[in-house]
Fold this protein.
Amino acid sequence: MTDVAFGIDIGGSGIKGAPVDLATGKFTAERVRIPTPQPSTPKAVAKTIAKLLAQFGDDAKGLPIGITVPAVVINGVTVSAANIDKKWVNYPARDVISDLLGRPVTLLNDADAAGLAELHYGAAQGQQGLVIVTTLGTGIGSALIYNGVLVPNCELGHIEIDGFPAEKRAASRVRTDEDLSWGTYTKRLQRFYETLEFLFHPDLFVVGGGISRNSEKFLPYLTLTAPIVPAQLRNQAGIAGAARYAAEG
């Protein structure tokens, strides 16, 4: 495996990228962020990625490139779209982006990238068995990792609990939109994580997303058999995980 790879994280409001030291997960140059184009069509996003890479000059040349997208990715095709233009649905994104950049890229779901980052550099480092990484944000992203191997595209935020998709009740955005107290929100998280534990019996839960900065307000109050811990990489997770995925692929 190469020593350095380039990671790019496509979000609803910004596209971020940096070269990553694969031994440590740390960036070898300062991260660059460019606003996500509107509309965020695949070709518009690809052109923005090209602009981002150009800012790194020789530092990006010859490096494997991994790109996260807020979508399910199957064989380089994005079969869904969340917080980006609906033209991504059933779109051959990997091939189109590769053609526009003139170099091969790898694509993966953004929560899967966060999961890989936490496995190799963060809260799940060295963990065997089943790890479930969840990202609490606008929705709920999830990654399943078994003995160090990613099981991709697991959309656990869509599991129906008490008649609702889980993310419609327990995403971080819901807490803000409904002005929930931490106590009320924690009860919703309890239902979500106890359901996941009943279905999957993981060895470890890792909770990411911006809300993990406030993990002391809810994690200690969850009653589960498996340990549940905050993510460590936070905003770096997508870039680091995408770079790792590109190098391994």
Q: What stands out?
A: The longest helix spans residues 182-200. The domain at 4-109+238-248 is CATH 3.30.420.40 (Nucleotidyltransferase; domain 5). DSSP finds seven helices and 14 strands in the chain. The two ends are 9 Å apart (CA to CA).
